[in-house]
Amino acid sequence: MIDLKLDQTGDLLLEKGELQLIEEDQELAQYAKLTLQTNLGEWFLDPMIGMDFEIILQKNPDEDEIRTEITRALMETGRFSAVESVDFSYSRSVRTLGIYFTATGVNGETVEDEVIINA
After folding, report:
1. What is the pLDDT of residues 4-59, one digit of tens each?
2. How far is residue 49's CA from residue 44's CA, in Å, rounded to a whole number?
3. Between β-strands 21-23 and 2-4, what pairing exists: parallel, antiparallel or unpaired?
4. Contact 99, 88 (CB under 8 A)
5. Which of 12, 20, 23, 46 could form a disulfide with 5 if both were Cys (CB 3.0 to 4.6 A apart)?
6. For the chain, how many structural domains are there in total?
């Protein structure tokens, strides 16, 4: 697929006044990041897209539950055939969750990426 490329802040990327496009594994990685940074039910056009942030915002979050929720969120999109690995680290001092994942798209492309979620 081809999509509009976003910068690190989530804004459309412009270079020399032109919108930039993204495709293949980079597009799939961008889609995964957007999915994991969206709270479940937040997007009114598809309330099933996203990750349930309440699972990670608990006082003592369960690591298996977080891992399961990350996998569910990626698989729910219909863009991935498998999630091979999910790792994460939680920083209480700055209230962030770093997610590291490897997933295979339905197109056969493998994506390895990192997503930072601010809590």
Report:
1. 999 888 889 899 999 999 888 899 999 999 999 999 999 899 888 999 999 988 88
2. 9
3. antiparallel
4. yes
5. 20
6. 1
| Reported pTM | 0.86
**CATH classification of the domain holding 93:** 3.10.450.40
Instruction: Specify the residue for token string 């915002």.
Output: 57
Question: Could you report how far apart the first and last alpha carbons of the chain are, in Å?
Answer: 31
User: Residue 118 has which token pair?
Assistant: 């601010």
Domain membership of residue 6 as a residue range: 2-118
User: Does residue 23 contact residue 3 with C-beta atoms inside 8 Å?
Assistant: yes
119: Cα within 13 Å, side-chain hemisphere: 21
Contact between residue 60 and residue 21 where contact means Cβ atoms under 8 Å apart? no
